[in-house]
Hints:
This protein has one helix spanning 55-61; strands spanning 38-46, 64-73, 77-78, 103-104, 113-114, 131-132, 147-148, 152-165, 170-179, 187-190, 202-206, 212-220. It is mostly beta strands. The strands form four sheets. A five-stranded antiparallel sheet has the order 1-2-8-9-12, with no helix packed on it. A three-stranded mixed sheet has the order 5-11-10, with no helix packed on it. A hairpin with a 4-residue loop joins β8 (152-165) and β9. The longest helix has 7 residues, at 55-61.
Amino acid sequence: MTTTRAPSLANSYDIATGEDPRNNRNNRAVSAFDVPQRLVITNDFVSSFKGIRNRWLNAAANGWELAGIFQAQRGLPQDLFAGTVAGIGDGTLLGGNGAQRGDLVGPLNIPFQPNPGGGANNPNLITNSGLAQPLIGHFGTLGRNVIRLNPLVESDLTLGRVFRLKPERMHLTLQAQFFNVFNNTTFSTVGASLSSPSTFGYYSGTDTNARRIALTGRLTW
Length: 221
């Protein structure tokens, strides 16, 4: 039986406080864990080749089980914030706990990508993103959760067989388990503050582990 690591249900930047406390419609949007499309495919195949007369070949070819699960889903929504504006953490001046969003000044274009590790020398992804910081005391024109992170794609497989031993009530189960067999990386936790150009638009974490292989044996009596 295969297992898989579940993706994060919410990103750390989605907060309950609305940008404009006097206008709840300003904060109306899909939730941070909205997944409109998700596909899960499972398989369980047991080898059964008939007509093999040789006893040893028949025993070697039959009885193997290949089971797996493949999952793919659309990326989670991400909110984008103005951050510190002119040295003021709450640019709305309403105690909004940093809920002020950016101003949409052009086509929204943010090429989310892994952090290259250059720190302050990272290329500035705010440039040409279509976003700008709003003025102090103003609400940003960008909607809430209007952009999505990269999708999740992962596949796990298990190859194994049960060997009957003597006495008959004993059997040995051998398995090779492959987690994230195609070694696909789903990035998460992206920099979402316009006041931090060195991290804005860069992923700092992942929702999937690197490929792992586990060999297991279980004796049952």
